Amino acid sequence: SQKIEQNSEALNIQEGKTATLTCNYTNYSPAYLQWYRQDPGRGPVFLLLIRENEKEKRKERLKVTFDTTLKQSLFHITASQPADSATYLCALADSSYKLIFGSGTRLLVRP
Amino acid sequence: DVKVTQSSRYLVKRTGEKVFLECVQDMDHENMFWYRQDPGLGLRLIYFSYDVKMKEKGDIPEGYSVSREKKERFSLILESASTNQTSMYLCASSKIGTGEETQYFGPGTRLLVL
Hints:
Strand content of chain B: over 45%
Largest sheet of chain B: 7 strands, mixed
Oligomer: heterodimer
Shape of chain A: globular
Strand content of chain A: over 45%
Radius of gyration of chain A: 13 Å
Helix content of chain B: under 10%
């Protein structure tokens, strides 16, 4: 069956370090993958999109990689700050307009 | 900026009541979605609509219906609320034809069914 997996355990890191979050999927062949940020009690907010033919995408302190052979995406936040603390969701394009979301990984950045 | 608004942030209803959740977007998006989010389960798609009066079932449509009479408005209806429908409900919209289908979410409605 189709599955998207994100680490359910919170990632707890020190301010200034690089946070790396993982998204693994099975039985999909997505055209692209997206990452969203969600703060408590709020809706998710789009961060980055990476296409199947792209290896890496960057936006300021954010970097996303996409390995279609491993069926994995890595999401990096460099020089992390306490304000980066949130839950991060990955999402795969299931069709032309539907997304399938992972359950998210909570990131805690300690000052 | 795209803005998606939901009619209520918090709602308390009794079992058996009919519940209406409304969502409005201001960016002329064709697609609109209703999700529910529960701890450990992530976002699960209830219904989506790709045009006025068009709707398709998502992964968990049982106990819900939807209405899209105008392009900017998408309503979720709980015909007879039950305690297992206590959840966070999120509405989203996206534009067709961008090749990216980024979804823009509302702030969510936290529904408690007693």
